[in-house]
Amino acid sequence: MKSCKIICLILVSLVFFSCSMKNKQIELIRQDADKLIKAQSEMGYKSWTEGAFSNQDSLYKAYEHLFTKENIQLVRQAEESEKDPLEKKALSFLRLYLMGEYIAKQTAALYDQLENRQAQAKVKVGGKEIPFRQIAVLISNEKNQSQRRQLYSAQDNFLDSLNVIYKQIEDFYLTQAKELGYNSYNEFAEDLKSIDLESFKPVVQDFLDKTKGIYEKLLAEFLQKNLKLSPGNFYRFDVAALLRQGEFDKYFPKEKLIATVKATYLGLGIDMDKQPNLKIDAEEREKKNPRAVCFAVDVPKDVRLSIKPIGGVQDYAALFHEMGHGQHFANASEKTWEFKYLGNNTVTENYAFLSEYFLSDPDWIVKHTTMQENEMKGFLKAQVFGRLLLVRRYCAKFLYELELHSQNPNAAKIYADYLSSAMGFKKTPSDEKRYLYDVDANYYVVDYLRAWFLEAQLKSKLKEKFGENWFEKKESGDYLKSLWAHGNKFTGEELAPQIGYPAISSEALINELNQLLGSVQLAGKD
Fold this sequence. Notes:
The protein has 526 residues and is mainly alpha-helical. Helix content is 65%, strand content 4%. It has 2 domains: 29-185, no CATH class; 197-519, Neurolysin, domain 3, CATH 1.10.1370.30.
């Protein structure tokens, strides 16, 4: 009997020791992942703001011991045995991070090939050689449609060469998903994004169906107004030129950009001058990337935004978008490491869109610009059209990517068909060449779509609670801070019920766009 007790004690001790060792190993994984993410952010920030040499590959090599099947399995086992729901969720976030980086590490060389080829490639157009990455800018600025067509189709052969590499990456993702224990890549993506892809499909289709009439009316109007074209003569290479809003840029001067952002958030009771943990680098260095960006270097203590101001609608929209990310991370008070840095991006993109779309609010425009009523109507209509086109494009991308990642052999044709149907342009053979070039890794399209829908729901709730001018009330800011405090702990599906909705749906966004169009007295509103 005594020997049995001793054996039991030994077994208990071994189990305890084993659990203790596993916990220590997982804590070491967290510590190294934290160091890596901070080092990546620091390097990325210096490269973006100063033009410093970036060598992210060297960081991956320094921490390559992190992203192994053994570590993934270790965390998976801990997750499966964990009883505490929050710790279980944190371990889930960590496992998915390790999985994503495990695959990314192995495809890094292929992505380097793509990056280097695109950076160095030149395309022949009318006897001239033009850098590949300059083509999109030229198409956007080109006033002659036949010249836009020529620039667009000139990329075909080069895109064919890129597609060979993109196909290798796509095939590798499918293989790796199965090696990691999933039946398909889509099943892996559902775990990664915390979503049922098939259940989200009707939500997306509903938006396309219910906005079709509005979109087609606006498309015809803006094609005639901006390009002197009819829908029957509208092609994909016309889209960038169609969306230019240069006539409104004068109301968004470079000199007032930072002050306007600060004044807007001050209306919410948030004094950015008293946020030492949130910094904006607006210096105009020669090697600085002009695009706005947010680096959450050390949440919440060190959050940095960068922009090289040029003024105009797009410049304001970009900085307001990144400020939405910035306020989210700067106000996060979560202690659990995974809830500060990991998780999917639906919730933070939702806050970014909420901030960006101040520019679509009539009351905000009156308060923060000198735009007159007639001009404001034209501006708001352009904002609605631009958002409709963009969201409908992403709806089509999502539906297409479901087919692509299900290994549909007709993926290129489906891609061209779906985008043509959603955006209203006539197809050309060149459209199919972009069927892999236009795919975001790991279904990021899902994060954007859920964020667009969730943002409209959140805004509707803010108006219900605090009135149409909610952005001028401290109570609204306090409410947002209470949401931001959770960092990335909640998924979009978990946040929706907290703000009063049973699930993420497109209804609030459709209602908002209809209301904006009603405010500018658009005839035939759906």
